[in-house]
Design a protein that fits this description.
By secondary structure, the protein is of the alpha+beta class. The chain is 12% helix and 29% strand. It has a five-stranded mixed beta sheet, with helices on one face. Strand 1 and strand 2 (36-43) form a beta hairpin. The longest helix is centred in the middle third of the chain and has 12 residues, at 49-60.
Length: 101
């Protein structure tokens, strides 16, 4: 069963740039080493949640591996929110965790 986005659908994120206005903290897993990476990032509020999936795919080196992104407590999957903007999804200040499935 597929739990993540199509791999070529989303635009590139604003990675740690000064123009972003939504701040999130990512907990990514490097695909080749399974090492946990924690990274604070900024995105534009009008970008979609799908942008976060593309960012996670690029930064973790996941390639075609399937993964989930979750946030909140208890952690809830972000995939159902993929078409919402980051502002609509209320993700400012959230910690987002990546999990390979």
């Amino acid at each position: 069963e597929h739990h993540g986005p199509p791999w070529n659908t989303f635009a590139h994120p604003t990675d740690d740039g000064d123009n972003g206005d939504i701040h999130v903290q990512f907990r990514l897993i490097e695909a080749d080493t399974n090492k946990l990476i924690t990274r604070k990032c900024r995105f534009h509020a009008h970008e979609t949640v799908g942008t976060l999936f593309k960012f996670a795919q690029i930064k973790s080196g996941a390639g075609p591996r399937h993964f989930e992104l979750r946030c909140g407590y208890p952690p809830k999957p972000l995939w159902p929110l993929v078409d919402l903007t980051l502002n609509e999804a209320k993700l400012h200040g959230e910690s987002i965790q990546m999990k390979f499935v």
